[in-house]
Amino acid sequence: MRFSIIFRIPKAVLTSQITRNYSEYAPKALRSLKPKSTRNNLQFYVDSCRVRAVAGNGGDGCVSFLSVWCKEQAGPDGGDGGHGGHVIFRATHSKKSLNHCHSVIQAKHGERGTHKDCTGKNADHIVVDVPLGTIVKDGSGRVVGDLQGEGTMFVAARGGAGGRGNKFFLTDTEQEPMVAEYGAVGESNHYTLEVRSMAHLGLIGFPNAGKSTLLRAITRARPTVAPYPFTTLRPHIGMVPYDDYEQVAIADLPGLIPGSHKNYGLGIQFLQHAERCRGLIFLLDGTNDPLKQYKTLNHELKQYSAQLVQRPRCVVLNKMDVPRVAEIYRNISTHIRTKSVGETAVIGISAKTGHNISELLRVIRQMYDEGEDSDK
Question: Is pLDDT at 224 greater than 80 in this prediction?
């Protein structure tokens, strides 16, 4: 005989135990087991581009008269021309940047009509997939399209209509029309495409602060690292995976210098990159007056946009492997007051040696979770 023993656990005790265990859980960053790419051509992130959308022209109508064995003059039989193709932007989650967008997007022309009432072939539309949240601006800078939802489309240029053949102009008084229409010319417009959200967090700091080195240390991205300023001219995106299947996108942004809001250096272009990040990581060079760097960064962001200063942030002091930086870290920790998450206002790390990187990854995940909660 088999006996089974059933233990009954009070529901209140079980619920409290589950809640306590869940609240103590903290996602941990994973180290990617996939090696970094060995390709020579590096991929960078394009969050803004200017394109010219050229639609196709319509096909011309045909002037033709039917002649068969039983009736030599059977009347006009010229067919209509085909319509030109449109240029359409479509939002999709499968695209994350605008790297694939060409400067000129040309649709095909419609075919001309032929005899025996044959209509020319219509040209296929050119559909360009863009990331969700892409903003479309015309030549004057006015927003004409906001592609937020999946599958949302914007017709950038309309194709020309096909011309009518001489069969269309047949009337009771005109039995032999010798006229047909030309196909309409397709539209040609200039647009500026901008991705509203580039990454969850962006690394900002002075040139040679170690932003590219840090991104290489925590992600599989391969931005160029060199001992001269403005090594990074375009953003690079890296993904940090966690053990709960979440991924945090971090952007390595070009360096900032005093007067960037007046378009010094990379200027406005840099600040536009920073505006497309949900949170900011201030990376300070510990060997070059980090407190002054932090004040300058705050000033430049405030001069460009007051809303940009209100973004979630954390402050990271790099190059802790240098002996004198440890003393500087203890001094500036009492001066910098930020809205950063975590127990400390300033995190001291070394992107070169990996010192305290795990603490930075914990704070990055906490900033990401708080950003997700605020969006909801």
Answer: no
